[in-house]
């Protein structure tokens, strides 16, 4: 028990609630929720959303808090020890290892995303993306170059800025974790969460004070909330709602269990779990629906909002929102607020997700906190490096799929079954209510026992089958194109409706846009390396790209030439949209020259590298866990021998 | 904005606000009684299982 007395504890109840809410509130609340709702039935999405919350989110929240406090009673802050206490079987602690590998892998890429927000907060403050050399900055290219996702160098010459912000972000996380639970995580939550609420309020007030531009705030709200009851007959909508609940509450990371392990033995977990859900839903439903989508409707117009909502979370947050904010006075202030908001949301989540790993090294391996923080920090920095340098090969998405999506469902399913069927729902229910400030309705006992595990299994099967159907398990090359020196154009390049007929061209080429991409991807798979090409051409008066010459890797030349590239770009509707008052043609009457770069990235080696890293991390934690338990068992035997008697159970360590 | 959209928005946001108000209320009412007996205590001996190892 001496070890238990040395464990940290929360400074105050509100500190714990804010930290737990901070862990749950992330970028997804502000970007993913509105996009998901808008694409899955609008207002009607809230029906499966609330059903998922009741059948799945809330029960898993209570299970996590209960498992955590129970493990904490025996001095365990991470799931190997917690599971070992719940299930007296040698395999239990190894199942708990998933609750260490997933958080660490998640942190590797999530802090990178977090660092983008920090970087963009700085770029907002300095007005960096407002204009460049007197021209409007193309924000899509700006983001692509910041992340090294393209070979063009219009705004960023290299990786330097990206690396600086990534390193600063990881060090900030490690510093908070080094300071401990009360002086680090709790203090951060007490500052960051009120700041997050304040930033949200400032932005909501700002949005509603802007009046009308291309559209109005109300167009966005109408798009988001108009119910489409027909969508409810689609299983996809129900799965999307379950997925959103899963992500928004940060279930399956082992964080809430870790936080709850620092509670006192008779502290409440029932009302604490409910309050965490309530605070998370407040940010998600109220602020999540009042900022991003209405802002895009205001600036881009109602007809553009469906396309923006479908463009993905990062596109809404890092491209569309800056576009909106820089169009009105005060981008330096409001842009900074927006990105600091996203940064704080991510920061409170990442420190929470990393804490179980720190707790494992402290509680089980008996490392002092500075050593545990240093060790995790080292792994964190080393693991983030490949994410930064190989981002263009889709390694972040790969990690997100396994560690941030599928792995979480697997772990939540294990927890759910362990709690309800192995530990036993009767013991679990009693444990939940020990010291509780509320009585959880009895119906949830049956939901925890039967409905939640089944629902988790359904979500897992759905996502896995969907991944197989979409060929996600076999890495395909990424094919893209970009305009060089895009910063010298006053207008912007974008895709849209096809500019050429799909009928065969005079050369007899009848390939579709998808077939061009597939042909280039196939060539990359044959030669097994990246392929690059560049085309010089002009912009015709309609904004269409006319390719004059094409060069580059000879392997690319066998599937693409000047005529084929021009047709491909035409089929994708790629064109130049001049700035208001500008003519596509140059001022001296000649057509404006343009260079298009074709990039085909051979993803397979890097995707397999990430998979090997993931397996390596899991194996490493399995070995460490095995070694820790063996050592513990040996020490117990020695203690017993010194005391003069060897208990029989000491021979079989669990 | 259609009436349906307004209804769904107000119902959802109202529900979330009510849930938050409920939690705050419960903390204020019952949190003060922390030193007193909990709302529900399991029978003695039902949760204190022996350590697994």
Describe the structure.
With 654 residues, chain A is an alpha+beta fold. Chain A is globular and about 95 Å long. In chain A, 65% of the residues lie in helices and 7% in strands. Chain A has helices at 2-6, 13-24, 27-30, 32-39, 46-73, 79-86, 90-96, 98-126, 139-146, 160-179, 181-208, 217-225, 235-248, 255-261, 270-290, 292-300, 305-310, 313-325, 331-363, 369-389, 395-422, 425-433, 443-469, 513-527, 554-557, 562-571, 604-643, and strands spanning 131-132, 135-136, 478-483, 492-494, 531-539, 545-552, 575-577, 592-601. Chain A is built from 27 helices and 8 strands. The model of chain A is unreliable at 648-654 (pLDDT under 50). Chain B is an all-alpha fold. Chain B has one helix at 3-30. Chain B is rod-shaped and about 45 Å long.
Q: Could you write a compact summary of the structure shown?
A:
The complex is a heterodimer of chains A (about 650) and B (about 55). By secondary structure, chain A is an alpha+beta fold. Helices cover about 65% and strands about 5% of the residues of chain A.
Give me the secondary-structure topology.
The complex is a heterodimer of chains A (654) and B (53).
Chain A: H1 2-6, H2 13-24, H3 27-30, H4 32-39, H5 46-73, H6 79-86, H7 90-96, H8 98-126, E1 131-132, E2 135-136, H9 139-146, H10 160-179, H11 181-208, H12 217-225, H13 235-248, H14 255-261, H15 270-290, H16 292-300, H17 305-310, H18 313-325, H19 331-363, H20 369-389, H21 395-422, H22 425-433, H23 443-469, E3 478-483, E4 492-494, H24 513-527, E5 531-539, E6 545-552, H25 554-557, H26 562-571, E7 575-577, E8 592-601, H27 604-643
Antiparallel strand pairs in A: 1-2, 3-8, 4-7, 5-6, 5-8
Helix pairs in contact in A: 2-11, 2-14, 2-15, 2-19, 4-13, 5-6, 5-13, 5-14, 5-15, 5-21, 5-23, 6-7, 8-10, 8-19, 8-20, 8-21, 8-27, 10-11, 10-19, 10-20, 11-19, 12-16, 14-19, 16-18, 19-20, 21-23, 21-27
Chain B: H1 3-30
């Amino acid at each position: 028990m001496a070890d238990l007395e040395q464990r940290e504890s929360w400074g105050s109840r509100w500190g714990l609630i804010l930290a737990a809410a901070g862990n749950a509130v992330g970028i997804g609340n502000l970007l993913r929720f509105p996009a998901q709702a808008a694409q899955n039935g609008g207002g009607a999405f809230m029906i499966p959303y609330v059903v998922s919350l009741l059948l799945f989110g809330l029960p898993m929240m209570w299970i996590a808090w209960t498992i955590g406090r129970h493990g904490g009673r025996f001095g365990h802050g991470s799931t190997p020890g917690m599971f070992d206490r719940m299930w007296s079987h040698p395999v239990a602690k190894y199942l708990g290892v998933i609750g260490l590998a997933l958080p660490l892998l998640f942190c590797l890429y999530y802090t990178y995303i977090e660092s983008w927000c920090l970087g963009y907060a700085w770029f907002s403050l300095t007005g960096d993306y407002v204009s460049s050399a007197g021209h409007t900055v193309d924000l899509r290219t700006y983001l692509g170059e910041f992340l090294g996702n393209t070979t063009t160098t219009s705004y960023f010459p290299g990786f330097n800025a990206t690396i600086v912000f990534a390193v600063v972000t990881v060090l900030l996380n490690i510093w908070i974790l080094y300071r401990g639970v009360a002086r680090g995580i709790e203090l951060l939550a007490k500052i960051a969460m009120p700041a997050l609420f304040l930033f949200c309020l400032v932005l909501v007030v700002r949005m509603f004070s802007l009046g009308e531009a291309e559209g109005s705030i109300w167009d966005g709200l109408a798009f988001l909330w108009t119910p489409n009851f027909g969508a409810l007959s689609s299983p996809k909508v129900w799965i999307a709602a379950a997925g959103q609940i899963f992500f928004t509450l940060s279930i399956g990371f082992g964080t809430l269990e870790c936080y709850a392990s620092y509670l006192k033995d008779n502290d409440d977990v029932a009302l604490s779990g409910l309050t965490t859900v309530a605070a998370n839903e407040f940010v998600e439903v109220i602020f999540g629906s009042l900022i991003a989508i209405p802002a895009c409707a205001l600036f881009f117009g109602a007809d553009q909002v469906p396309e923006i909502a479908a463009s993905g979370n990062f596109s809404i947050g890092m491209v569309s929102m800056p576009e909106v904010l820089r169009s009105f006075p005060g981008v330096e202030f409001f842009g900074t607020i927006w990105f600091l908001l996203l940064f704080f949301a991510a920061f409170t989540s990442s420190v929470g997700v990393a804490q179980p790993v720190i707790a494992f090294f402290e509680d089980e391996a008996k490392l002092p906190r500075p050593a545990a923080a240093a060790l995790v920090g080292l792994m964190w920095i080393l693991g983030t490096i490949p994410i930064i340098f190989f981002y263009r090969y889709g390694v972040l998405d790969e990690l997100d799929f396994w560690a941030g999506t599928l792995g979480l469902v697997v772990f939540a399913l294990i927890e759910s079954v362990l709690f309800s069927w192995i530990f036993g729902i009767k013991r679990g229910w009693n444990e939940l209510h020990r010291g509780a400030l509320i009585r959880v309705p009895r119906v949830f006992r049956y939901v925890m026992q039967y409905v939640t595990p089944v629902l988790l299994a359904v979500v897992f099967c759905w996502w896995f089958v969907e991944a197989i159907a979409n060929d996600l398990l076999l890495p395909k090359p990424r094919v893209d194109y970009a305009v060089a020196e895009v910063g010298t154009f006053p207008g912007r390049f974008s895709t849209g409706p096809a500019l050429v007929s799909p009928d065969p061209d005079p050369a007899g080429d009848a390939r579709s846009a998808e077939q061009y991409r597939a042909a280039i991807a196939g060539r990359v798979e044959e030669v097994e390396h990246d392929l690059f090409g560049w085309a010089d051409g002009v912009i015709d008066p309609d904004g269409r790209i006319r390719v004059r010459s094409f060069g580059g890797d000879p392997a690319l030349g066998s599937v693409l030439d000047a005529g084929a590239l021009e047709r491909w770009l035409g089929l994708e509707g790629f064109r130049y949209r001049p700035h208001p008052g500008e003519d596509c043609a140059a001022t001296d009457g000649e057509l404006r020259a343009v260079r298009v770069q074709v990039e085909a990235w051979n993803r397979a080696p890097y995707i397999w590298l990430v998979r090997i890293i993931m397996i390596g991390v899991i194996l490493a934690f399995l070995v460490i866990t095995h070694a820790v338990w063996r050592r513990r068992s040996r020490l117990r035997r020695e203690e017993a021998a010194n005391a003069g008697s060897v208990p029989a159970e000491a021979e079989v360590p669990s | 904005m259609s009436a349906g959209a307004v209804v769904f928005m107000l119902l959802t946001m109202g529900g979330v606000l009510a849930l938050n108000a409920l939690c705050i209320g419960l903390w204020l009412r019952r949190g003060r009684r922390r030193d007193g007996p909990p709302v529900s205590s399991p029978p003695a001996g039902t949760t204190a299982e022996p350590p697994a190892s």
